[in-house]
Amino acid sequence: MTFPARYARILILLLLMAAWEVAGRRTSRVLLTPLSEVGRTLFHILTLNALPNFYLHVGITLQAILTSFVLTTLAGLVLGFLLGMWRRAGDAFSPIVTALWAVPPVIFYPVMLGLLGLGVPSKVGLAFAASFPLVVLGTISAVRGIDALLIRVAEAYGAKPQHIFVKVIVPAAASTLAGTLRLAFSVCVIMVLVGELLAGGAGLGHVLDSASKFFRTSQYLAVVLFTLAFAFVLNLLATFAERRVRAWTRQ
Amino acid sequence: MTPAVKLRLGAVAGLVLAWELLARSGLVLSVFLAPPSQVVTVLPRVLAASVEALATTLSMTLVVVAVSLLVGVTTGVLLGNILYLYDVFHIYLIVLYSMPKIIFFPLLILWFGTGFAPILVFSLLFTTTPVVVLTVGAVRDLNPTYIKVARAFGAVGHQIYFKVIFPSILPSLINTIRVGVVMSLAGVLIGDIYLDFSGVGHLLLAYSMALRPSELYAVILIVVAIVSLFLGAITMLDRRVTRWSALRLAS
C-alpha cells in the first residue's frame, strides 16, 4: 500500500474517462458516444447552438426547486414547531407523519398531475410531498431535543413565552434544523428532476427525456453531465449555507 | 386502550373526516379527489384486480432489497474498515450519493430495453449507494478499542469481521434495512411509472388517466398499508435485535 491514495483517486477517474472514450468509439452511437464528442456537444449546448431554449429549461427547473424548498421549509417548520412544542398534538400526529415519510412520494404523482397540471406546480407538489415529512420530523426532534433546563432557566428569569421561542428555542434548534433543511433541499432537487423526467414539457428532466427518446445519445449525455454539475453546485451552496447557520448558532 | 392509542386513532379519524368533507365540498373537482367512503367501497374490487401488479412490484422490490443489502453492507464494511480503500473511494461515494440518479434512467433503457431489467438496475443503483454510505458511517463510528482488543487476543481477519464488526453495527443495520426497503420500493415505482411497465406504477397511471379517482386512491391506500406492514415487521426485528445485543453485552 505504498501507492498514495491521492494518486489512486485521480488514476481511477482517468481510467473511467478512458474506458468511456474507448467504449464510446466501439459501440453503437445509440448506446454510448465517446467522451470527447459529448464534450463538444456540451459546448454547443452551452453556447446555445444545439438547444435554443436550454437556459429557459434550466431556469424552469431552478424555479421548481426553489419554490418547493421555500414551501416545504415554511410549512414544515410551522407544523414541526407546533407538534414539537405541543406535546399531545405531537404524540397524536407524528406517527402519521412518520408513516407518510415511508410512503414513496411518486405514488401521489398521478394525482398531482391531475390536480396541478403538467407544468411547474406538479413538480413542486411532488418535491413537497417528498420533503415535507422530512422537515416536520426533523423539526419535531430538534425542538424536543432542546435541553429542558434552558427553558426552565429562561422562565425563572421571567421570560415571556414569545421571548422563549425567539431567544431560546429557535437558536437551540437551529443547528439541527440546518442539517434537516439541507437534506430536504437535496430531496427537492432530486424529486423535481424525477417529476420532469416522468411527465411534462419543460425543464432539465424533460430535455434529458426527449433527447434520449429521439436517440440523441450524445446530447442526452451532455445534458447528464450538465445536470450533475448543476446539482453539485446547488448542493455545495446548500452545504455552505448550513455551515453559516451552524457557525451563527455557536456564537 | 391506552390514552396514547386513543389519541392517535382520534387524529387519524379527524384527518379522514377532513378528507371526506373536502371531497364532498366540491372545492376540488370530483375527478381528482374521491371521498374515503367511496374509496373504501371500491377497495375489495381494486385489491382483487391488482394482485398481479402487486406481485410484480413486490417481487422486484424484494430482489432489490436483498441484493442491495448484500452488496451494500459488504462494500460498506470493507470501505469503512480498510483505511486505504476509504481514502481512495470516499470522494466517489459522496459524489455518487448526492447525484440525482434518476437522470441515468433513460440510458439504462437504451442499454437494457424496456422490460423489468432497467427498473431493477435503476432501483439497485438508487438503493445501494445510501446503504453503503450508512454502513461506512456505522463502521467508522465503531470504537476502535474493540478491534484492538480482539487483535490483542489473537483474532484474525474473518473473526474480526464476523465476531466484532458485524455484531456491533447490527443495531444501526436495522435502520439501514429500513432505508433500503423504503428506497427500493420508491426506485421500483419510479421506474415502473417511467416505463408504464406492469406493476403498481402502471396501475396508478391507468386509473389516473381513466379519471377514476376512487380506484386511484384505493391503490395508494394499498401501497400505504403494505409499506406500514414492512416497517412494522422491521420495528419488531429491531426490538429483537436490541434485546439480543443487550443480552450479549450483559453476559
Task: Write up this protein.
The complex is a heterodimer of chains A (251) and B (251). Chain A is mostly helical and 251 residues long. Chain A is 82% helix and 0% strand. Chain A has helices at 5-26, 35-46, 54-85, 87-102, 109-116, 120-144, 148-156, 161-198, 204-213, 217-250. In chain A, helix 3 (54-85) crosses helix 9 (204-213). The model of chain A has no long low-confidence stretch (mean pLDDT 87). By secondary structure, chain B is mainly alpha-helical. Chain B has helices at 3-25, 36-49, 51-81, 83-98, 105-112, 116-140, 144-152, 157-195, 200-209, 213-250. In chain B, helix 2 crosses helix 10 (213-250), helix 6 runs antiparallel to helix 8 (157-195) and helix 8 (157-195) packs antiparallel against helix 10. The mean pLDDT of chain B is 86. Chains A and B meet through helix 1, helix 4, helix 5, helix 8 and helix 9 of A and helix 1, helix 4, helix 5, helix 8 and helix 9 of B.
